[in-house]
Specification:
Elements: E1 8-15, H1 20-33, E2 38-43, E3 52-59, E4 73-78, H2 81-87, E5 91-100, H3 118-129, E6 134-137, H4 139-146, H5 152-162, H6 171-181, H7 184-196, E7 201-203
Parallel strand pairs: 1-4, 4-5, 5-6
Antiparallel strand pairs: 1-3, 2-3, 6-7
Helix pairs in contact: 1-6, 2-3, 5-7, 6-7
């Protein structure tokens, strides 16, 4: 391995039930389909309680361990905006964030804990990530077209690929992974979700869409 070889380092983050683990498996399989070495690590202990779930996915020859260091991630793909904020310390300067705009409000917010302030969260992301590096997926529009929010994880992957957040992995690579992984019962819906990403991504910089 060349000393100059480096990996593409991606963090996928959400809450239990959003399919973050499946998304990481699809991304890893898509990368392997391109012949890339892949290392992954997952934290799923709180998944059944609606807690944070995240995966580290490292693609390419430069990955010597599965964990991404703080300030080293090339991209964060978040299925929930507060989870994007939670993972920001791992993002490198100039890295990209692709996030859903649909909140999953924690139980604590309804039982006397701090309120979930979505506008403040999105404003913080725009301030910290920088114009042109924050891509926001319109989750409500995707759900309205697809008839379900259960495939938001696949929508986010497609959006991230189109935004250039997945390094060498393309939408075509992801489609091959979906076809090889997803049950035939759900395949058509997942493929629709993957390609539905086109047009749902809006960058923080006004007027720039993918």
């Amino acid at each position: 391995m060349s000393e100059t070889a480096r990996s593409t380092d991606i963090i996928l983050a959400g809450v239990g039930g959003q399919g973050a683990v499946l998304a990481s498996k699809l991304l890893a399989r898509a990368a392997m389909g391109r012949g890339l070495p892949v290392r992954t690590a997952e934290t799923i202990g709180m998944a059944q309680r609606g807690g944070s779930v995240f995966s580290h996915v490292r693609l390419g020859e430069g990955a010597r361990s599965p964990l991404i260091g703080r300030g080293r991630a090339d991209a964060i793909v978040a299925f929930e905006p507060a989870e994007a904020v939670r993972q920001l310390p791992f993002l490198r300067p100039g890295g990209m964030v692709v996030t859903s705009d649909a909140p999953v409000v924690p139980v604590s917010a309804a039982t006397g804990g701090p309120a979930y302030d979505l506008p403040a969260i999105m404003g913080y992301l725009r301030e910290r990530v920088g114009a042109g590096s924050l891509a926001v997926v319109d989750a409500a529009a995707a759900e309205a077209e697809l008839g379900t929010a259960r495939v938001l994880n696949v929508v986010l992957l497609g959006a991230a690929a189109r935004a250039g957040a997945l390094g060498p992995v393309t939408v075509d690579d992801l489609e091959a992974a979906v076809r090889a992984t997803v049950s035939p019962r759900f395949l058509d819906l997942d493929l629709l979700a993957l390609h539905r990403a086109k047009g749902t991504v809006t960058f923080a910089r006004a007027g720039v869409q993918k």
